[in-house]
Amino acid sequence: MPLESFDPLLRANDFVQDLKWDPALRDRFAADEDAVLAGYDLTDAERTAIRARDFRALHDLGLHPYLLSQLARLVFGTGENAGSSAPATALLRSLLGDDYDRYLGSRG
Asked: How much is the pLDDT for 12?
């Protein structure tokens, strides 16, 4: 995914960075996602995409591609099998949409 959509001013970028580096924030997010999101000056579209785990929408809004993968890892946990973990699967399903099954089929 190219950086063409990346918007450095998108506040969700800051949110994901904070979530990545602050264990207490991750705990609060796990306990009360809405309260944590309310503490950030996010747009309704950003909040909706984060709640829905809609990584494609976040990409289209301008979230950095690296932060997309970090958010998937943070909200779904870290799997042991690279590329087949719940975070990787959720990210790919969201990004590829209807092309997900075709993508899996092309991998053999």
From this structure: 96
Residue 59 near residue 72, CB atoms below 8 Å: no
Q: Which domains can be identified in the chain, with CATH numbers? A: 10-106 (1.10.700.10)
DSSP string, 11-73: HHHHHHHHHHH-HHHHHHHHH-HHHHHHTS---HHHHHHHHHT-HHHHHHHT--HHHHHHHHH
CB 50 within 8 A of CB 58: yes
Predicted confidence (pLDDT) at residue 103 exceeds the cutoff of 90: no
Task: List the structure tokens of 107.
Answer: 């991998």
> What pLDDT is attached to residue 61?
96
